[in-house]
Design a protein that fits this description.
InterPro entries: CWH43_N. It comes from Nitzschia inconspicua. The chain has one domain. By secondary structure, the protein is mainly α. Strand 1 and strand 2 form a beta hairpin. Helices cover 68% and strands 2% of the residues. The chain has a two-stranded antiparallel ribbon with strand order 1-2. It is elongated. The chain starts with 9 loop residues before the first helix and ends with a helix. Helix 7 packs antiparallel against helix 9.
Length: 295
């Protein structure tokens, strides 16, 4: 779990573009959900259908696939940026298990959101799950599994990272000094990185905590009552609960809330990267100013 070293200084790695990637990925995620929602012709009485049901048929199917594919790529690049810019080093020094959980969770979220976007529910899903229908197809099951990978991965990443954001204290001062410094192999100059408790801004920590609190309530419900889970559960009225309009609306609403919380969490990394870049720029300027005075 040690980020790869190269001949670039930390300040060169954290470009303005890199800082914007998490926010851009979040915007694509929100934009995709909003786009397919507006394009989909909703049945009467259905106001907040589960996200998965928005990508079954054309033309929203193509928007769903392209939108979540781009979102997944940007999310993957976001995780890579965090890895390359030493975000996982302080977490690893605090707890190697916590760092591993955060890293693996991020990868799982990338695989899950991209996979469920590419492999959507079957176009005839709602017809198939009605009494007398053929039931769920292999495509439906695979979509459900990929959605579960996203929810589990996102939860693992967000909970691990948020725990460290508040509880990650260096074990001793020497470790803190050694940990938050980076020497450029080309120049030999050393630029100190922020202390552990300063890695996340106060605004970012509060925002991440709010996202975790919301997801803790909504995510389990969203996954527990996923349309594919209820497909073969016949209610008292003789039809599958997924065809009950009230239940469909509740399921969809919890999905929007849970996914929205995870989207905002990943987007908040832009705040952290911009803060880190600004502090490194200031420290670099102080180093240059000190050298000029010595000369």
């Amino acid at each position: 779990m040690v980020p790869p070293s190269d001949n670039c200084s930390v300040i060169e790695k954290i470009s303005v573009t890199s800082c914007c990637i998490p926010l851009l990925g979040s915007c694509f995620g929100v934009g995709t959900i909003l786009s397919v929602y507006l394009v989909t012709e909703l049945p009467p009485g259905i106001h907040t259908p589960p996200i998965s049901l928005l990508g079954c048929q054309q033309p929203e199917h193509t928007v769903y696939q392209l939108g979540f594919s781009v979102t997944g790529l940007l999310l993957g690049y976001c995780v890579l940026i965090l890895f390359r810019n030493h975000f996982y080093l302080p977490i690893q020094e605090y707890s190697s298990l916590l760092a591993l959980s955060s890293w693996i969770g991020g990868i799982m979220a990338v695989v899950g959101v991209t996979g469920q976007g590419v492999i959507t529910l079957h176009p005839d899903f709602l017809q198939n799950i009605k009494p007398g229908g053929i039931g769920m197809t292999q495509q439906d099951r695979l979509h459900q599994q990929l959605a579960l990978v996203f929810f589990v991965g996102a939860a693992l990443h967000t909970y691990s990272t948020c725990w460290f954001a508040y509880r990650g204290i260096p074990r001793n001062e020497k470790m803190e000094s050694d940990l938050f410094s980076n020497a450029s192999p080309t120049t030999g100059s050393q630029i100190s990185l922020p202390a552990t408790q300063q890695l996340f801004s106060t605004t970012s920590r509060h925002l991440k905590t709010a996202c975790v609190a919301v997801s803790l309530l909504a995510a389990p419900i969203a996954e527990m009552y996923h349309p594919t889970r209820l497909a073969n559960d016949t209610g008292e009225d003789g039809i599958a609960p997924v065809n009950n309009k009230r239940i469909v609306n509740v399921i969809g609403l919890t999905q929007y809330v849970a996914v929205g919380a995870y989207i905002v969490f990943f987007g908040s990394y832009s705040l952290d990267l911009f803060q880190l870049r600004q502090r490194l720029l200031q420290q670099q300027q102080q180093v240059h100013t000190g050298k000029k005075k010595d000369e």
